C-alpha cells in the first residue's frame, strides 16, 4: 500500500488486514505504563490540515507518537499557505524536508489524489520518486487522505468498521443505515464503499435535497423514511448536518429536520436489541441526535474515537513499516 486516498483503494482482504493490525496494536498497548511502540522510530509523519479538525488531526498525531514516529502538525493559517503558497509547492517542500508520510485534509475534493501525484521523494532509499525536475532519490512520500471536500474520508470509514466489528462481532450480512446530510458527507461515501466491500447491506436515509447526484450508482439502497428502516437495521450512523457547506435552503428548518430525520429517544426505541448507534462527530445534539441517545449504552460514539487512534496506527504501519502487501 503506497497511499490511502479512497476507501475504494481497499479490497476486502486489505481492509480486513488493516482492521486486524489495529486490533493487534491495541492489544500491544494494553497494560503499558508508557504507551510507546518502537515500530516507526526514525520515520517522520506530517499532518497538514487546511480545515478545522479535532478528532482526526489529534488521533493521527497520537497514532504517530505512540509508534515513536516524529509527528509534526502544519496548519494552513500558520504556514506559507497564508502567504499564497500553492498546495503543490507546500507538498514538495514537506517531501524535500524528509517527510515519510503526509496526512492531508483539504476543502477541495481530489486534493489528496493531486498530492499523491506531486508528492516528491521521501528520504528512504531504494525506489524511484516523482520527477520534480531533477534527479530523484528515495521512495515517494506516502499520502493519507484525512478528508477532501465532500469526496472521501477513508480512515473514518475504517474506524467505523472497526467499531461495528467490535460491537456486532462481524460486518458481513449486517444492515447499516446512514442517515442525514449525505450530500455534503465524505464520511457517508467512504462508509458506503467500505461497508459494501466488507459484505454489509447499506441503506442511505435522507431528504431528497441532501442526496448527491449519481447516488443510484453507489452500492447501497436509498430510503426517505427513517421510521420504516430502524427496526430492521443492526446499526444506525447519524451524520452531521454540514451547515458551513450549505448555500441555500436544503430543508425548511432545524426543527423540521429533527422531526423527520433526527434520532430521538422515541425513534431509538424502534431499534432492535443490540443495535448500535454511531456518529462521526462533532454532534449537533437535539437536531441530529437526542442527548440521551448519544449517551446511551448502545451508543458507540466514544468507541469510534478510541478506535480511531488504533486504526490510524495501523494505516501508518502498513504504509511505513514495510507490512506485506
Automatic annotation (TrEMBL):
Entry's Gene Ontology BP terms: 'de novo' pyrimidine nucleobase biosynthetic process; 'de novo' UMP biosynthetic process; amino acid metabolic process
Which keywords label this protein? Pyrimidine biosynthesis, Transferase
> Is Transferase among the key words of this record?
yes
Q: Which domain of life is it from?
A: Bacteria
User: One MF term in GO for this entry?
Assistant: aspartate carbamoyltransferase activity
Q: Does the keyword Transferase apply?
A: yes
Specify which residues bind L-aspartate according to the UniProt entry for this protein: 83, 186, 240
Kindly name one Pfam family recorded for this protein: OTCace_N
Q: In which pathway does it act?
A: Pyrimidine metabolism; UMP biosynthesis via de novo pathway; (S)-dihydroorotate from bicarbonate: step 2/3
GO annotation, cellular component aspect: cytosol
Listed under subunit, the entry gives: Heterododecamer (2C3:3R2) of six catalytic PyrB chains organized as two trimers (C3), and six regulatory PyrI chains organized as three dimers (R2).
Q: What is this protein called?
A: Aspartate carbamoyltransferase
Give the gene name. pyrB
